[in-house]
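>> received
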Amino acid sequence: MDNGRGKDGSPDDDGDIGCCGYILMALSVFTLVIFFPFSLCCAIKIVQEYERAVIFRLGRVVSGGAKGPGLFFLLPFIDAFKSVDIRTATFDVPPQEVLTKDSVTVSVDAVIYIRIFDATMSIINVEDANRSTKLLAATTLRTVLGMKNMSEILSQREEISEGMQQMLDQSHRSLGSESRASRD
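>> returned
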C-alpha cells in the first residue's frame, strides 16, 4: 500500500502537487505581489538558533528538510509550518510500582533526557514526541525491572541502565530523537 512515504518513513520526493496545487500557488504569489508591503508579515518567518521549522505545502512536507535557524519564506495561504525545539529536554518519570521476577514490589523513578536530531521525522511520525518519550520510558522501566530479581536490581544498576538505553534507542530512531535514561 502506497502512503506517500519511502522505506525509511520519510516522505517521497516526487514533489507533484497537481494542477490545483499549481493554481493555488499562482494565486498565492499573485496575492503576495498585490499586497506586497503588508504581505511580508505573513510570508517571512523567523526561527531561533535552537529551533527548526518543518514546512508543509498543501499538507505535504516540503523537500529539503527542516529550515532554520534564521529567516525563511512561506507562501501565504499555501504553506504552514511547525517549529521544533532541538535543545535537550529533561523529564521526570513518575514513580513506577514494579513487580520484580521474585514477586517483590519496588517503587522506582527515572529521569529522561531527550534531544530531537531530525525535526521532520519527529513531526511526521508522532503527534507529541516529548509525551511519547515519557510514556515509553515508563513502560521500558517497568519492562526491564520486571525481568530482574530484587538482588539483580540492587547489584546490576549499570547493566540495567544500558539495557534501558538500548530499548529506548531502538524505539526512538523512528521518532527522530535520541534519549538518555537515568534510574534512581
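>> Confidence is low (pLDDT under 50) at residues 1-5.
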